[in-house]
Amino acid sequence: MCIQRRVAISQFSSSDMHEANVIDEIVKEISTKIMKCTPLNVAKYPVGIESCVEDIRKQYLNVGQDNSHMVGIWGIGGIGKSTLAKAIYNSISHKFEHSCFLSIVKEASFSNGDLVPLQNEFLSKIIERNPPKVSNASEGINVLEQKLRQKRVLLVLDNVNHLDQLKALAGECDWFGPSSRIIITTRDKHLLHAHVVNTNSIYEVKELNHQDASRLFNLNAFKSDICPDGFFELATEVIHYAKGIPLVLEVLGSDLCSKKDKDVWKAALEYYKSCPNKEIQKTLQRSYDGLHDQIKEIFLHIACFYKGSQKSYVIDVL
C-alpha cells in the first residue's frame, strides 16, 4: 500500500511538473505575441498623419492580397517619412505573421558598411526561438532568403540611403512569403527605382497644408490648437517660414514656447532667417550630402545665382 502511494505521489509530481512547463511555455508564447504587437511611438502631435496613412493603406499596400510587394515612401529630410512609416506599422502589423521595423542610422550603419547587426536584428524578429547569428552580410543574405520564403512578413526599412542596404535586407520580393509587405523610406527616389520598386508604388510625402501646419505649430508653441491674441501675425510668419515642413514647425514651436514677449519673438524670427536652427540645418544638410556631386553643383548654382528665376529658364541654362 505504501509503495502504491509513493508511486501515485511520484506520478502526480511528474504530471504537475509537466503542467507547470506547459504553463511556462504558454506565458512565453503570449509574451512574445504581446511584444510583437507593442506599438511604436509615432509623434507627440501626429497632425496630418491619419489621412496619409489611409491613402497609403488603400492605394499602395492593399493588405490581404496574395502577391508580395514593396512600397516606397519618399521625401526631403524633416518632412515626416519616419513618422508616417511608424503610424502605418502600428495600424497593420497585427495582420502579419511577423513584423519588423528597422531604423537604419545612416551615419553609423553604412559609414563602415556594417549591415550584419541589422540582419541579425531582423532574424531575431522573424525567428523567436534560437535565431541564427550571421557573421557577414553575404551569409546574412542567404539566411534571410532561406528563412523568409514561407513567412508572411511586414518589414519597414527606415532611412535607407544606399542600395546595398536594400540588397542585404530585402533583396527581392520573392524572398518573402505570400502577402508580405516591405515599406522603404528614403530621401533618394533613385534608390527605389534602382531596387525595382514600381513607380506606382512610390508615395511622395508632401508638405503640410496651411491648416495642419498652423495646428502643429500652435500645439508646440502654445500647447493649444488656438493661437493666443496678439501672436497671430507672428505665428503666421513662422508658419510661412517653415514651408509646411513638420520638423521645422516642431523645432521652432518648441523653441518659441518659453518666449512670452512679442519683441522676443520678433528678434527670434530675424535670427532664424540669418542663422537657421542647428537641428534643422543638420537634417537639411544630410539631404544635401546625399546628392550626387553634379546635382550638388546644380543646387548651389540655383541657391546662389538663380533664386526666384523662372524654372524653365534655369533648366535651359543648367
Explain what you see.
The chain has 318 residues and is α/β, with parallel strands linked by helices. The protein has two domains: 36-204, Rossmann fold (3-Layer(aba) Sandwich), CATH 3.40.50.300; 210-280. The protein is 57% helix and 9% strand. The protein has 15 helices and five strands. It has a five-stranded parallel β-sheet with strand order 2-3-4-1-5, sandwiched between helices. Helix 7 (163-169) links the parallel strand 3 and strand 4 (181-186). The chain starts with a helix and ends with a helix.
Keywords:
alpha/beta, single chain, Rossmann fold, about 55% helix, about 325 residues
Q: Brief description of this entry?
A:
The protein is of the alpha/beta class and 318 residues long.
Instruction: Write down the overall geometry.
Output: globular
What structural category arises from helix and sheet content? alpha/beta
Approximate helicity band: 55-70%
Q: Kindly state the number of beta strands.
A: 5
CATH fold call of the largest domain: Rossmann fold
Please work out how many helical segments DSSP would assign.
15
Order of helices and strands: HHEHEHHHEHEHEHHHHHHH
Q: At the fourth CATH level, what is the homologous superfamily of the largest domain?
A: P-loop containing nucleotide triphosphate hydrolases
Global mean pLDDT: 86
Top-tier CATH class of the largest domain: Alpha Beta
Query: Which residue ranges are poorly predicted, with pLDDT under 50 across at least 5 consecutive positions?
Result: none
- The CATH architecture designation of the largest domain is 3-Layer(aba) Sandwich
